[in-house]
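Listing S7. Sequence submitted for prediction.
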Amino acid sequence: MWLLIPILVYSVIFLYIRHVYTYWKRKGFPTELTGLHWQFLKQVFRREFHYVNAIDEAYKAGGERPVYGVYFFFRPTLLVRDVALARTILESPHGHFDDKRWHYMQGYRKINLLEKLASIFSATRVEGMFRNVEKVTDHMMKHLDAITVGSEYVDMQIVLRTYVINVFANLLYGLDSNIFEQHDSVFKNYIHNTLRNRGINSYTLNHLPKKSSLTYRLRDIIKDSVGRREDGGIIRKDIMQLLVKFRNGNDLTNNSKLNWHVENVFEREKLLSIKKLSKVTERFLNIGFESTASAATLALYEILQSASIYRKVREEIRNMAAATKNADNTDNKLTYADIDSLQYLGACIKETVRKYPSVPYIERVCRKNFPIPNSRAVISEGRTIMVPVMAMQRDERNFKDPDYFRPERFYNVTSGPEVQNFMGYGLGAGVCVARNFATLVIKLALAKLLNNYDMEYSVNKDEQILYNPAAFIKCKDGFKIRLKKYKTSAHL
């Protein structure tokens, strides 16, 4: 009698697993062969399994099929392999697909909230923040000037991560700080916290650091910064100033009048509480820090791999620097337009995002049945679809010689199949609203570094580029570069 109980339990478990892993076959979608392999279990046990690699393998296994059914543990997921279909799905105007992390903030759904906040990162607004970004960049340059002694190697991945977190501390949280000189900083702890979580996140779908005391410390900073602007009347041209304006219902969409003043309203009339505003800023920090630091590091990494690209980038930067000099041969102030004019450097950054997209895959949940165009198949409500951005941008059907770093794909090119197939900044409602800001942060840092230093880099055989959640260089010795002060007649 007692033997029947475990037999019954095992039978129920077996039938449930079989039901889950035959979902796509029952629905008539092409799908992978499923099975549990010891090699997979070994990879998980050794923390060598990475979702991004698994997605890439599933994409290749799909052959020529526009969609391909896969399974992530007990979650059937439809892999979209066609660029045109991916655009149709992600840009669907009828609300068929939503971000799986959707939630509400004072009546705003997250995706709508991002649309409301998109004007914060318009070109004109970002231009207004230029001086504050430049000030943070100068902190990095002073730090490198102090530690660089000709033959010394510097781990530029750590330097650029510190620089980017310093940008967010100053412009997103409204602090006037220099993380390079502060030994005990919540933002320096944030870097170490994300680095410690890499082992866990390498084989899970968790994109964000676990909630910790850092959340509450960051909330205290927000409360203080908001109070100084609302009650103290302090005006500072940064992201926090515009978030405070939005919190008070001020219009952000009128770019013709770049008014940074906050028209304060009663607490009950505010759109976001301090707690919800803190969630918005932490969300921007979690997404923006990793993606911006990753793009900056890997852009420098790829530029230094090729002598010709390195030479072209430096020549463009030096020509721009020389053009900023006054008639009396004195240095003029660098402007946003000067940095924006670095088109080849911009192409290098875009090619970096093409080869190492900050978001390697995009997930959406189907909120109502979606018939696939030119097909009888229907994606059912509640099912997850995945667009493997990195795999598609490394597919030779979409990009010629996809494994090679070629900035010329995007240099002075505004149309063509490769431009159309680029999805590095996202699509539809999930497009990166802060791409103008991130591009400025990366361009300004690389321009100052490449203009002021000669860089010597030797490829390390132990280097790997992994994702967690954005791409980073994994190497025992780090991303080490030898810096030598360059004697130039035009400084940035």
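Caption to Listing S7: primary sequence and predicted structure tokens for the chain studied. The chain has one domain: 4-485. The longest strand covers residues 67-72.
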